[in-house]
Amino acid sequence: MTDTGYGDFEFERRFLLRHVPRDLVADVTPSLVVQSYFLADEGYALRVRVQATSTGAVLDSTSDPLEVLAEHAEAIDFCTLTAKGPTAGGTRYEAERELDVLVGLEMVRRRGRRIVKNRYAVWLGEDGWVVDEFGGANHPLVIAECERSGPVTDLEIPQFCTTEITDDVRFGNESLACRPYASWAADHLRQLDADGPQYRQDFGENSTLRDGSS
Prior knowledge:
By secondary structure, the protein is of the alpha+beta class.
């Protein structure tokens, strides 16, 4: 819950990366995240997330979320239950509440469509960014997002961002749980190479590209 009057809403812009910007995250310990989606339909989602805040995992295309979770279960120290609505212009309803870790672990183990990822949290100027490195059927997908307590305008976009995906529902985590990136990555990358990078211009007249490590 924020103190801006927006309540249970999230405001973010999201970008596809070719790879994790290693120079940027060199001194950052990633958090291991396993998410299970119990509902994912037309932009609505009900999700349980379990997280090891000080432990990352080695992820590749063979990483099974349940196997990774079993290996790192003792490090899981945070869990949330989240309900989300459809995204509209970088704004989305999100009600997130903390859940008992043991309950969350059992829910993720028993049901839902799962994803696994490492999450790196960094600061660029006054903005907090997260970089998500996916494993399993979504490998080698890497997504960066900037989230604020109000609409994300006048954003300096780091050079390591390949193209904006804020409004591309295929890249929502609930969509990736149902239709993993690996199944359509080749077609998407061919289209990206043909069309070139795209960035939203209606979030603020001063959105610019900024230097960033790659």
